[in-house]
Amino acid sequence: MSKVTLAEAPPGVEGAGFFATTLDKAIGLARANSLWPLPFATSCCGIEFMATMGSTYDLARFGAERPSFSPRQADMLLVMGTIAKKMAPVLKQVYIQMAEPRWVIAVGACASSGGIFDTYSVLQGIDEIIPVDVYVPGCPPRPEAILDGVLKLQEIVKNESLNRRNTPEYKALLEKYGIVTDNGNG
Amino acid sequence: MDKLDNQKIITRLQDRYGEGLAVIGEPHGLLTVAVNVETIIDVLQFVKEDPELRMNYLTDITAVHYPRQEQEFCVVYHVYNMLQDVRLRIKVFVSGPIPTVPTATTIWHGANWMERETYDFFGIIFEGHPDLRRILNMDELDVFPMRKEYPLEDPNRVDKKDFYFGR
Amino acid sequence: MSKPVTKITPNAAVFFDNDPQDELITLNIGPTHPATHGVFQNVVQIDGERIVSGVSTIGYIHRAFEKIAEHRPFYQITPLTDRLNYCSAPINNMGWHMTVEKLLQIDIPKRVQYMRVIVMELARIADHIICNGILGVDTGAFSGFLYVMQEREFIYEIFEEICGARLTTNIGRIGGFERDFNEVAFRKIEEFIKRFPPVLKEFENLFVRNRIFIERTSGVAAVTPEQALSYSWSGPILRATGVDYDVRAVSPYSSYEEFDFDIPVGTTGDVYDRFMVRNDEMWQSLRIIEQALDKIKKEPVGVFHADVPEFYLPPKEQVYTNMEALIYHFKIVMGEWETPQSEVYHAVEGANGELGFYLIHDGGRSPYRLHFRRPSFINYQMFAPMSSGMLISDAIINMSSLNIIAGELDA
């Protein structure tokens, strides 16, 4: 018996030989189960991410088989570790280089809030420079926690409206961070 | 070869430098001496090349800030004799608006970044250093953060209201 | 102090004056380049595939450890040391504890010292696994990494059994351990020294006589002992050049003098030697753990901390029920303890080299000054000068064999 389980189909109308659902749901399902992560690992949490990618925890089970090291071909930015103020513009640049739709997970206390490093040189949470979708607590979080964060993000991705990235609210959000929106289709 | 002990090091150094070298003490067995800023490079060269002392390994360079002392800054060198496991701590006290110490990069290549780090944190100028720039902090930083007068936390933070912290 | 900058500064690039006549290209490697395993920036000038010169920029995760340490009581500095070299956090923890114990002149019972040795050697193995595994990945062999990572997870399980945490362990306390190793922990350590050798053997077989690996690493980035000493190198990369300097042997701490182990050294100081030194050190660490387990059996059972109630936190259950314990708990946590004014330098053999703690204490609640001698920081400064003349691909594996840990580099 194969242990492979199929992703649950979204609600829709089913009949002999056809299945109808909304485009939002179908695309969301596809996106959620094929997130390409961009590991932006700076410190300790990066080592835990290594364990998450490793054979014991295996992030690939959730469709994130291919860690993309190029921001151009990634959907999910995983920021792991302390972001110093010196690093902040680099992180922002990486975020800007990612194509829409893009999601961000702040892994660990440092990325979420600066953690124990309330100092002159450390950015107090990456949400000061880029929008964040999921925060994973822990210093560092266990691999299970990182996986949980990814699963939470999948929920967000599944339920995201296709039009969200073109709404004025979303543009306003990015403009708040000083990011110019030009996603080509809107 | 006889085992090198602290007494021997003191004799050896005092023979050469006499009054120019002060013995501070031996906290936890580690001999600590102070020399003045003019002779420091000569002392480092001497302890490195002297056939008896042979302290040819530069363990570390760092600095300490004593704002209440007349001579505000103390640059600390740790040198090490690997063969006999003997360490020596050499201190140089400097002061002034631009504290200046000659560079040790002429003796050890490894002193390069150690001095840059010390400059970055304390603003001590190492004269003759090939590339004295900030190393860990941002180039835009206009203070020397390890000096005691500068706070640990970022004073520009707006989200940290004193009210929430009971102060 | 300045606000977060919003622009990318040209950084090191300004140090090159590009002559339009020559054919050199300025290439920016990092700070987020996947091949550098961390946040290092190197701006190099290349002539084809060959590096002509380079400038390293570091400090991308500078967290001001030394400044924080001046504001924290001794107990709260242990979590900071975790985050120095996070691949082998227990060594940093123990090093810091031993520094304070040296300051306070606390005698540590033998059994505790052996327990520390076990934990430190496990951490060393965990660190070398990462370094050698990644070196394998960089030379094109991913499977070796996956084999040994599995065992690294098992080391984490042992740490979890001892202290509850996996990576940033905060293991032990000033004066000993928080609790004794339990039965499961001992059983797991014993299981580890049985199950790890075959895996390491298999890992070795993949690399040691592998033609591709040898071609990629042998003779690459060779360093002479004189150069290495002049750059104040320490640790496996210094030993790879043939200098048998190991703090554990030269100035033993935590009873290392009682253990029988060899110090592997290399001959040429190239990447292959560094790999072999680290590999052999894992075997030696296993030997040390084995001996330590034997020695512990001969010591009185149940001793896991020194008898210093004025410095060692009382057991939690007593804090809730016993007045005195509560008072001591408060005094110690708040740092209201009698401490001598002194200076201490204490060095331990970290996984990357001599990890030193220089503590100046004025009798207050927190250190007057605490300086970490961080091996990664000092080892890394040779990278840019030694890269000139190297191929880019060689420089990348050179960097992974130096095993620079960003947290330790930038402090």
From TrEMBL, chain A:
Family statement drawn from the similarity comment of this UniProt entry? Belongs to the complex I 20 kDa subunit family.
Entry keyword rRNA-binding: no
What are the alphabetically sorted keywords of the record?
4Fe-4S, Cell membrane, Iron, Iron-sulfur, Membrane, Metal-binding, NAD, Quinone, Translocase, Transport
Annotated Gene Ontology cellular components are: plasma membrane; respiratory chain complex I
State the species of origin: Sphingobacterium allocomposti
Which SUPFAM superfamilies does its entry note? HydA/Nqo6-like
Kindly list the places in or outside the cell where this protein is found, as annotated in its UniProt entry.
Cell membrane
- Which GO molecular function entries does the Swiss-Prot or TrEMBL record give? 4 iron, 4 sulfur cluster binding; iron ion binding; NADH dehydrogenase (quinone) (non-electrogenic) activity; NADH dehydrogenase (ubiquinone) activity; quinone binding
> What is this protein for, i.e. what is its function?
NDH-1 shuttles electrons from NADH, via FMN and iron-sulfur (Fe-S) centers, to quinones in the respiratory chain. The immediate electron acceptor for the enzyme in this species is believed to be a menaquinone. Couples the redox reaction to proton translocation (for every two electrons transferred, four hydrogen ions are translocated across the cytoplasmic membrane), and thus conserves the redox energy in a proton gradient.
Cofactors required? [4Fe-4S] cluster
Q: Where does [4Fe-4S] cluster bind?
A: C44, C45, C110, C139
What's this protein's name? NADH-quinone oxidoreductase subunit B
Membrane topology, as annotated, equals: Peripheral membrane protein
Q: How does it assemble?
A: NDH-1 is composed of 14 different subunits. Subunits NuoB, C, D, E, F, and G constitute the peripheral sector of the complex.
NADH:ubiquinone oxidoreductase-like 20kDa subunit domain location, by residue? 44-153
Q: What is its main location?
A: membrane
Pfam families in the cross-refs: Oxidored_q6
Judging by the UniProt lineage, the source's domain of life is Bacteria
This entry's Enzyme Commission designation comes to 7.1.1.-
Which top EC class is named for this enzyme in its record?
translocase
Q: Which InterPro entries match?
A: NADH_UbQ_OxRdtase-like_20kDa (IPR006137), NADH_UQ_OxRdtase_20Kd_su (IPR006138)
Recorded catalytic reaction(s): these are: a quinone + NADH + 5 H(+)(in) = a quinol + NAD(+) + 4 H(+)(out)
> What does the note under cofactor report?
Binds 1 [4Fe-4S] cluster.
What is one Gene Ontology biological process annotated in the Swiss-Prot or TrEMBL record?
Answer: electron transport coupled proton transport
UniProtKB/TrEMBL annotation, chain B:
- Where does it reside? Cell membrane
- Domain NADH:ubiquinone oxidoreductase 30kDa subunit per the UniProt entry, residue ranges: 34-154
- Keyword Nucleotidyltransferase in the entry? The reply is no
Catalytically driven reaction(s): a quinone + NADH + 5 H(+)(in) = a quinol + NAD(+) + 4 H(+)(out)
According to the UniProt entry, what is the EC number of this protein? Answer: 7.1.1.-
> Which residues belong to the signal peptide in this entry?
none
Name the predominant localization: membrane
Provide the topology term for how it sits in the membrane: Peripheral membrane protein
What top-tier enzyme class does this entry carry? translocase
List, alphabetically, the InterPro entries matched. Answer: NADH_DH_suC, NADH_quin_OxRdtase_su_C/D-like, NADH_UbQ_OxRdtase_30kDa_su, NADH_UbQ_OxRdtase_CS
Sorted alphabetically, the keyword list is: Cell membrane, Membrane, NAD, Quinone, Translocase, Transport
Keyword Endoplasmic reticulum attributed: no
Gene Ontology MF terms: NADH dehydrogenase (quinone) (non-electrogenic) activity; NADH dehydrogenase (ubiquinone) activity; quinone binding
Q: Which GO terms describe its cellular component?
A: plasma membrane
Q: Which domain of life is it from?
A: Bacteria
List, alphabetically, the Gene3D superfamilies matched.
Answer: NADH:ubiquinone oxidoreductase, 30kDa subunit
Subunit record text: NDH-1 is composed of 14 different subunits. Subunits NuoB, C, D, E, F, and G constitute the peripheral sector of the complex.
This molecule's function is given as:
NDH-1 shuttles electrons from NADH, via FMN and iron-sulfur (Fe-S) centers, to quinones in the respiratory chain. The immediate electron acceptor for the enzyme in this species is believed to be a menaquinone. Couples the redox reaction to proton translocation (for every two electrons transferred, four hydrogen ions are translocated across the cytoplasmic membrane), and thus conserves the redox energy in a proton gradient.
Q: Per the similarity annotation, which family is this?
A: Belongs to the complex I 30 kDa subunit family.
Q: Which protein is depicted?
A: NADH-quinone oxidoreductase subunit C
UniProtKB/TrEMBL annotation, chain C:
Q: Its Gene Ontology molecular function terms?
A: NAD binding; NADH dehydrogenase (quinone) (non-electrogenic) activity; quinone binding
List the membrane topology term(s): Peripheral membrane protein
One Gene Ontology cellular component term attached to this UniProt record is:
plasma membrane
| Keyword presence, Lyase | no
- What highest taxon heads this organism's lineage? Bacteria
Sorted alphabetically, which InterPro entries does this protein's record hold?
A: NADH_Q_OxRdtase_suD (IPR001135), NADH_UbQ_OxRdtase_49kDa_CS (IPR014029), NDH1_su_D/H (IPR022885), NiFe-Hase_large (IPR029014)
- Key words, A-Z: Cell membrane, Membrane, NAD, Quinone, Translocase, Transport
Residues forming the NADH-quinone oxidoreductase subunit D domain are 138-410
Cellular localisation: Cell membrane
Q: What Enzyme Commission number(s) does the record list for this chain?
A: 7.1.1.-
Q: Supply the SUPFAM superfamilies for this chain.
A: HydB/Nqo4-like
Q: Which reaction does it catalyse?
A: a quinone + NADH + 5 H(+)(in) = a quinol + NAD(+) + 4 H(+)(out)
| Record has Amino-acid biosynthesis as a keyword | no
Chief location of this protein within or outside the cell = membrane
* One Pfam match: Complex1_49kDa
Subunit relationships: NDH-1 is composed of 14 different subunits. Subunits NuoB, C, D, E, F, and G constitute the peripheral sector of the complex.
Protein family (similarity comment) = Belongs to the complex I 49 kDa subunit family.
Q: What does this protein do?
A: NDH-1 shuttles electrons from NADH, via FMN and iron-sulfur (Fe-S) centers, to quinones in the respiratory chain. The immediate electron acceptor for the enzyme in this species is believed to be a menaquinone. Couples the redox reaction to proton translocation (for every two electrons transferred, four hydrogen ions are translocated across the cytoplasmic membrane), and thus conserves the redox energy in a proton gradient.
NCBIfam families hit by this protein: PRK06075.1
From the Swiss-Prot or TrEMBL record, give the protein name. Answer: NADH-quinone oxidoreductase subunit D
